[in-house]
Specification:
The protein has about 325 residues and is of the alpha/beta class. The chain is built from twelve helices and 15 strands. It has an eight-stranded parallel beta sheet, sandwiched between helices. Strand 2 and strand 3 form a beta hairpin. Helix 3 packs across helix 4.
Length: about 325
């Protein structure tokens, strides 16, 4: 049993980097999503806006988890140098106290990629010859590492709009993972012969960057770049092509992302082939997964992912003696 007098701690981004491991995070997320969850324990995100500032909150009480809490992120556009900062506040079920504040910048990148890998580990073929990556930023880099931890990749084809960036990304990934990585001149070139396609970069002007007729039969798609109504990443032809769509947050994906809104406006029906990660991890979709020829995973991110991964990082940081005790205590209301 936890000591109720244990001080709250702070876990820095540096510490998160030091203790994080992809297999542990992926397994933790698969375990969390395999359990029955009460919808009221996982409410949708909220966003407050006003005066040039915004604050987003993602709360979660993951089933079976010691920790529960919320991620907060905010930014003021009127600041001299605007930038978003992220923090996850974790409460301890065993003590009912605030256990930790976790710098969530890296946690956000880790949890997004680990969730995608957790899903692909269930819906992608056991052998994937080539991975196409559309994007060369932080999310793309994290996703390549996460996917490589669940599948043996023989080749990675990379496209992003800036030649220097995609070439540098290909060189760094090849050196890090020991897998042949090629910079491609167009997204179609990257996608054409790939069995697994990751869309991790919205195009300029919010025009789709991936089209269905580029995809070979049997290719699995993961899309993470369209998370609000104003954003576009994949064409409606990709959604029409998919015979199984797995979503991390079903309602938010289907009703609040620009890609799905565009598909709905074009008359494409997708609700009857869309399911959640809880369905996938519990095994209730096994027959559909086996029958699916062109499955897709689409993500907007959720509080459960943040809290599960932050809780894992907190546990490892405490074990390693890297968590910093806060110099002050919180008052407890009884």
């Amino acid at each position: 049993m936890a000591d109720p007098d244990t001080p709250s701690v702070f876990v820095s981004g540096e510490t998160a980097r030091a203790v994080f491991q992809w297999p542990d995070a992926i397994k933790a997320l698969q375990h969390a999503y395999a359990q029955q969850a009460d919808p009221v324990a996982l409410p949708p995100r909220t966003v407050a806006r006003g005066g040039g500032a915004w604050l987003r909150t993602l709360p979660a009480l993951p089933p079976g988890s010691r920790y529960f809490g919320a991620k907060l992120m905010g930014m003021s556009a009127t600041a001299p140098a605007p930038g978003a900062e992220y923090v996850i506040v974790l409460f301890d079920r065993e003590t009912s106290r605030i256990a930790a504040f976790v710098d969530a910048n890296m946690v956000t990148a880790y949890r997004t990629a680990a969730t995608t890998a957790a899903a692909l580990d269930r819906i992608a073929p056991a052998k994937v010859d080539r991975l196409a990556v559309l994007g060369s930023g932080l999310e793309a880099a994290m996703h390549v590492r996460a996917i490589a931890s669940v599948r043996d990749l023989s080749e990675i084809a990379i496209f992003s709009p800036t030649p220097a960036k995609r070439e540098a990304f290909a060189a760094s990934i090849q050196e890090e993972l020991g897998v042949t990585a090629t910079a491609c001149a167009s997204p179609e070139e990257a996608v054409r012969e790939s069995g697994l396609v990751l869309a991790a970069a919205r195009s300029q002007g919010e025009r789709p960057i991936l089209y269905g007729d580029w995809l070979r039969d049997g290719a699995v798609v993961a899309s993470i770049g369209s998370t609000v109504p104003e954003q576009r990443e994949i064409d409606i032809s990709v959604i029409e092509r998919a015979d199984l769509i797995v979503c991390d947050m079903v309602e938010e994906v289907l009703e609040e992302t620009g890609d799905m809104i565009a598909a709905h406006e074009a008359g494409i029906e997708f609700h009857d082939k869309s399911f959640g990660l809880f369905d996938l991890m519990s095994g209730s979709l096994d027959s559909r997964v086996q029958a699916a020829r062109n499955p897709m995973f689409k993500s907007v991110g959720g509080g459960l992912q943040d809290v599960v991964v932050a809780g894992l990082i907190l546990t490892k940081a405490l074990e390693a003696g890297l968590a910093l005790p806060l110099p002050a205590a919180f008052e407890t209301k009884r």
